[in-house]
Structures are given as structure tokens and as C-alpha cells.
Input
Amino acid sequence: MSTNTESVVRQILGEVAPDTDPQDLDRSDNFREVLDIDSMDFLNVMIAINDRLGVSVPERDYGRLTSVEALVRFIDERLEGARAD
Amino acid sequence: MAHDFRMPLLGADMDAGTLIEWLKAEGDHVSSGDIVAVVETQKGAIEIEIFQDGVIDRLLVEPGQTVPVGTPLASVRGPDEEPETAVAGVGETAAVAGGPAGPVPEETRQRARPRHDVPTQPGPAATRQDRAAAGARITPGARKLAAEHGISLEGVSGTGPGGIIQRSDVERLLAEPAEASVSEPQVIAPSTIEPGQAAGKPAGAEAMRHAIASAMARSKREIPHYYLAETMDMAPALAWLEARNADAPVAERVLPVALLAKATACALAAMPEFNGTYQDGVYRPAERVHLGCAIGLRGGGLIAPGIRDADAKDLATLMADLSDLVRRARSGGLRSSELSDPTSTMTSLGDQGVDDVFGVIFPPQVAIIGFGTIEERPFVVDGAVIARPVVRATLSADHRVSDGHAGGRFLTRIARHLRDPEAL
Output
């Protein structure tokens, strides 16, 4: 798992939930529940990921990206795929 | 004829507000809709708009002063009138060093003023020069955050539009090792200090809880609520949204809540008995639909600023407005008109997983529309039971103004709009 992707994701989560410490979050935690993130916040997370990492997450994949681990893996796979092209 | 610009009423339960900052100076021209000041209330720092064209004659209240609703804050003359005989502003009554002009002690008055070294206003020309020299503009959210942490924003360059110092700039400063940035002891903004309150407690949250409590208690005391619920088919709406979002850039994706808001706003436009204000025994239906959106604040608290003309906006604009409102509700920067305007309110607790939310009406409004989670339920289509995404919509309405029959028709109207999202 790339540390850069993970640190960007954690930073984004921290911006959306400024009263929490996303460094504390376990990779396997359901971050939406733990950080009390609603659908508007989640969309903002997706927008930030698109802006900063260049990866666009399709809506149909939202449901399974509930942990930092899942999100980072998804992003890394997309980035790999883009590099391979 | 000069009209006084007065402390506005920003919520049914507001008694007083504290002026934090003037954004206009004596002699400045103003147009209707201009933001002229920032005021601290129980709902946080709110930007106050003026609704007349003219020129600011005299500023009558100093930053840091707490005054009752209705108190003249500034005198304003019409655009073509002559100025009054030149009288220096508020600073006349206070020494330049800032002797107290009211019950507020000096350090806290200075705390309430923005951190760009503008002295007590000695006169219009000096104020304008000082402001130009100081340069720094600061958003309410940034100011509040800096004040909470006792840091100075002097010499900070902002990364917001036009160089304004915004919240993220303050957050960045806080993350850096402290370089003599604490210049004053941490003091909570004066308006939110209650007697006996421990220093360091989040006074803003306490004040907001109190404001919500009094508005909700008043609502239940005075408004005879009736409640209706309806299960609405969301399959056409979600399919339409999915297709639309698949082709759009991430930043332009529309959430289901925006569709619910549009459908609600259109129903309100068609049925005025749910869109207006009831005061002193008289119901006044509103001419336009300014839809209040109940927004939960992180750490607790609720605020319901309005999207103006929600029925007339296209979905993309509505979504952008909603997103912007949520951001400013949570970080500061809401405007007075957004709090006092709403003609009806919507609350959506879909993200929590609740089925129904029966809201409490925000006086002096007469209705609140609630939406629960959108999820798959057994649903009958053509005689067969299938799994279908549905949402439970509710109406809490004032029985002095409408009856259940109208309420039922109102909800059905929303359901009909949701079944035809293309037309919204």
C-alpha cells in the first residue's frame, strides 16, 4: 500500500472532519461511521481525491469503499492502471 | 431621509447580537444586498446584509458591543442626500488606546476586532486609510478559529479569493510550530461568555444548544403540529441521477438530497399553505420559496439556513448552493438573510439510517418536511412484490393554517415530482 496515497487520503479525511484525528483511524475502520461523515462529506472526499490524486471514483463503487484500506487500494489500482497505459 | 441600519433578527429566539467587525466605513456607498458587518449570535458569526442603497453616514456601534435586536447600528443616508454635519464616529467617546465604551472589558473588545491593527475609529478618512494599509481581509470562520486558539493573524497572507485569510490558512498556521504567534491570552468571544462558565469550555456550542432549546420549546408550546407520512418510490429518481452523474465530472455530481430539495420546493410553490409565516394570529403566505435546509453541525447543534428561490433553480445550481451552505454552516460565513429568510424547511436524516424524521417546525414557519433513508424495501409493482428503493417522507405542519387533507395532497405532489426527475 503506497504511503503517499494513504497520507493524502488521511489528510482529506481530516479536512472533512476537522474535529477528529484521522491519523488515529485504523486502516480497516469504517471511516464514515467513526468520523461521522455524511453523504455530502463523502462527495467532498471524492472530489478532493479527484483533484489531488487524479482518480475519479465511480458512484457504483462508493458502497464498498468504507475503510481507508479499501479506498487506498482502489486508488492505487487506478493509478497503476493509468501508468501501464 | 436617512434610515437607521438596525441589528437584525436572525432567529425566532434572538434577543441581542455582538458586533464583531464593520466591513464598511463611514462615507462608503452601499447597495441593497451588500454585506456591511459581521455579528456574533448564538448561531455563530453571521455576515449582515443591508437592504437599501445609500451611503453610510455614521457608525453608531463599536466592534465588541452587544446590543439588542432593533438597535440602530449605523445611520444611512439616501444616495442623493447631503451628509450630516461632520461628526467623528464612535471613537469620539473613547480614547485612541481603546477605553471601554460599554460594559465590555478592553481586552475582550480588542479580541473581538479583526487582527489588523485598526485603532478605535477616530473618523472616516483615517478608518479607510487604515483599512487600506492593513489590507488583510479575514473570513468569519478564520477569525473565530484564530480567536479560539489565541493566535494573531497579523502579517499572514491569505490564500482565499482576493487574498482573504480563510480557515485553511489559520489551520496551516496552527499546524506550524508556534513562533511567538500567541500574543494575547486565550479569550472566548465576549458574547458567548455566560456567567459561571468555565474558561476553555466551547462556549459557542453551549450558546447554540440554548438557542435550539428555546426555539424548539417555543415551537411545541405555540404550534399545534399534525404529522403525516408517505412512502415514495425513488427508483426513477435514482436511475436518472446515476445516469446523469456517470457523465458528469466528480465535482458536478448531484446527491439525492438535492433532488428531494427541488421536489419539495416545487410542491411548496404550488401549495402556499405550507410556505409562509404565522405571527400575531395572521398567516402570511410567502411569494417565493426560500427553502431552509436543516444542517447538523459537527459536535452537535443544528442550523437551518435557506436556499433562495429553490423552486426556480436548476438542479446543478441547487446542489452547488446546498454544498456551499453546508460548508459555511460548519465553518462560519453564513449571512443574515440566509437565516431570516426561509419560508419553509426541509430536514433529511437519510445518512443516519432512520426511517422517518418528524421534524419540529421552526417558528414562525408553518411546516417542516422530513426525509429518511433511501433504501430498498418490498414494494408492489403491477401486482407483484419487488425490492425497490424508496424514501419515507414526512410532513409536520401547523394545524392553524392547514389540514391533513391538504397535507396529504402536498406529500403526494412531492412523490409525483420525484417520479419524474427529468421535469424537475
